[in-house]
Write a structure and sequence with these properties.
eight-stranded mixed β-sheet, single chain, 10 strands, 2 domains, two-stranded antiparallel ribbon
Length: 229
């Protein structure tokens, strides 16, 4: 855990704006808070820097499309991405393949009903949209493992709950950004350290449980049955 001001002060010291034991000024703190907020929003857009995931469950109503977000059918923070999904019917869980537009759009007949096999997520604003095929009917529950954006601090004393390595990575990346704001040259070693620190957390965030050979229900069907061509 680290306070926003601690990361900001560390970044300013790294580029020589603050000396050891020197207190940060009001305008420096304002600049640092804005730069840190921008940095966290940018990292929220990168799947490999996202560390926070939660499971969301929602009863299926028979619809093929659901909105998810602050005003959606599924009331939750709008997910940045959906890592995995399954449908629970009683005590039985059945995986649902999270796919992209090409695969989902290739389903020629989207009117069928049955056990859901595919899910496509579109991160629209303010609510994202989930499309499911086949139509699931009712009586089961959709479970989603979703990636969530960083909590952006609103005050310097706000705590940032971060995994190991993030405090250093954020401070170094923030230092690089602040060099531009304050007209300081970016030292080569600073760039190297910032890149290395970010690379470490990105490697740690690669889901070790992801199996690229996982069964794709698309392969179980005859190609011409529901895909054009």
């Amino acid at each position: 855990m680290a306070k926003a001001i601690e990361i900001i002060e560390r970044a300013f010291k790294r580029i020589g704006v603050l000396a050891a034991g020197e207190s940060i000024s009001g305008h420096e703190l304002l600049d640092g808070m804005q730069a840190l907020s921008d940095l966290l929003e940018m990292w929220s857009a990168d799947r490999l820097t996202i560390y926070k995931s939660i499971e969301i469950a929602h009863p299926l109503t028979g619809a093929m499309r659901y909105s998810i977000g602050p005003t959606g059918d599924i009331s939750a923070d709008r997910p940045l991405t959906i890592y995995s999904a399954f449908v629970r019917n009683g005590a039985v869980d059945t995986p649902v393949w999270v796919t992209g537009n090409n695969r989902f759009d290739g389903i020629t007949d989207k009117s069928g009903y049955g056990r859901p096999e595919y899910l496509r997520y579109t991160p629209d604003m303010p609510d994202g949209h989930i499309d499911i095929w086949p139509h699931p009917g009712t009586g089961s529950t959709l479970h989603l493992r979703v990636g969530m954006q960083f909590d952006v601090p609103v005050a310097p004393a706000d705590d940032l709950v971060l995994p190991p390595g993030y405090r250093r990575a954020l401070a170094l990346a923030l230092a690089v950004d602040l060099c531009g704001v304050y007209g300081r040259p970016v030292a080569v070693d600073l760039i190297g350290q910032a890149v290395e620190a970010k690379a470490i957390i990105m490697r740690n965030n690669i889901n070790a449980d992801m199996d690229e050979s996982s069964f794709d229900p698309f392969l179980s069907r005859r190609h011409g049955s529901f895909v054009s061509g």
